[in-house]
Automatic annotation (TrEMBL):
Sequence similarity: Belongs to the HTP reductase family.
Keywords, sorted A to Z: NADP, Oxidoreductase, Riboflavin biosynthesis
Organism, as annotated: Ascoidea rubescens DSM 1968
One MF annotation (Gene Ontology) recorded for this entry: 5-amino-6-(5-phosphoribosylamino)uracil reductase activity
Name of the protein described by the UniProt record: 2,5-diamino-6-ribosylamino-4(3H)-pyrimidinone 5'-phosphate reductase
Catalytic activity as recorded in UniProt: 2,5-diamino-6-(1-D-ribitylamino)pyrimidin-4(3H)-one 5'-phosphate + NAD(+) = 2,5-diamino-6-(1-D-ribosylamino)pyrimidin-4(3H)-one 5'-phosphate + NADH + H(+); 2,5-diamino-6-(1-D-ribitylamino)pyrimidin-4(3H)-one 5'-phosphate + NADP(+) = 2,5-diamino-6-(1-D-ribosylamino)pyrimidin-4(3H)-one 5'-phosphate + NADPH + H(+)
Tree of life domain: Eukaryota
Pathway where this protein functions: Cofactor biosynthesis; riboflavin biosynthesis
Function: Catalyzes an early step in riboflavin biosynthesis, the NADPH-dependent reduction of the ribose side chain of 2,5-diamino-6-ribosylamino-4(3H)-pyrimidinone 5'-phosphate, yielding 2,5-diamino-6-ribitylamino-4(3H)-pyrimidinone 5'-phosphate.
Bacterial bifunctional deaminase-reductase C-terminal domain sequence ranges: 48-249
The EC number(s) this enzyme carries: 1.1.1.302
A GO biological process held by the record: riboflavin biosynthetic process
InterPro entries per UniProt: DHFR-like_dom_sf (IPR024072), RibDG_C (IPR002734), Riboflavin_Biosynth_HTPR (IPR050765)
UniProt keyword Ubl conjugation, yes or no: no
Amino acid sequence: MSELIPLPESLKEAIDPYLPTDISHHNANNNCGSEGDEILDDNNRPLPFITLTFAQSLDSRISLGEGTQTKLSHLQTKTMTHYLRYNHDAILIGINTFLTDNPSLNCRYNPENVHPIRPIIIDPNMKSCAANNYNFSNLNQLASKNMGLSPYIIVSMLTYLNLKSDIDQLNNSHSGPTIIPINTTKVKYSNNIELFDWPHLFSLLKNHYHINSIMIEGGAFVINNLLSYNFNLINSLIITIAPVYLGKNAIQVSPDFHLSLLNNHNTNDRNNLTWWTGIQDSVLMFRNK
Ligand SMILES: NC(=O)C1=CN([C@@H]2O[C@H](COP(=O)(O)OP(=O)(O)OC[C@H]3O[C@@H](n4cnc5c(N)ncnc54)[C@H](O)[C@@H]3O)[C@@H](O)[C@H]2O)C=CC1
Ligand SMILES: Nc1nc(O)c(N)c(N[C@@H]2O[C@H](COP(=O)(O)O)[C@@H](O)[C@H]2O)n1
């Protein structure tokens, strides 16, 4: 586990306007989020502030291949992701990222003022708990030592019905993960495969589990699916770009449709987009109004 470095002041200044406002613990951020920006679901219930954030190569790849963790970020931008964790209630990843990276998903930004962030794993078939995957995971080690919160694992209703007694037992255990079943729906643009409906999941997390802000780190399936689903669900997009090509066999981030961050109405208005450049990486920050 690498030590973090102090966050460059210029990066902190650049990123603060892209953070959620509604973080309970600490700083009075001078950011542009406000009650009025809140996104609602179809039933007019509020949704959490969503930040989509990941590190990519020059050719829009996030890892060298399936089952491989690839370090792209410089320590400066790695520290930035922990500053982001410090400013969100939860951090969400897909099951392949959990199985490949065995991540810690805790916040190591300010050890004097520990910020508990809730890991959330999108895992329709509950692979995270099979074959001792969870028992031997860093998430479990950290949660059992009180150095991180235990995760919420999002499973399909079908999985829940098939494994009900095991899941009920896990949910009643003291420090184990919380298994949350939700319905899947057929997604037309994705070959009719059954997926979770993002607004439904976000609404449940906000209105039932009181999670006001979620940073979504990946992997590629999650990122591509979210970008393709409805870009308006995303409040902030923060992408680290490392000066490396990973090549065409690497895992690619690319939405199903053309998607532009440019504002066609007023090309001079670039208040919602910032580039920061450090020793190695550049960071694109975009605020979806
Ligand atoms: N460079 C970076 O910043 C990051 C890189 N990664 C890398 O990404 C790779 C993993 O990416 P992927 O293979 O694309 O897997 P992934 O981590 O996105 O997980 C994909 C799986 O999650 C589930 N899932 C995702 N969205 C769903 C939805 N809406 N409904 C139902 N199920 C859903 C499905 O089971 C799907 O097969 C790893 O190599 C990891 O190291 C992961 C996070 C960040
Ligand atoms: N920001 C960033 N840069 C990279 O180069 C990466 N490979 C990742 N990966 C994400 O970070 C998670 C690891 O978190 P811990 O340090 O173990 O807490 C990993 O699972 C990916 O989501 N991120």
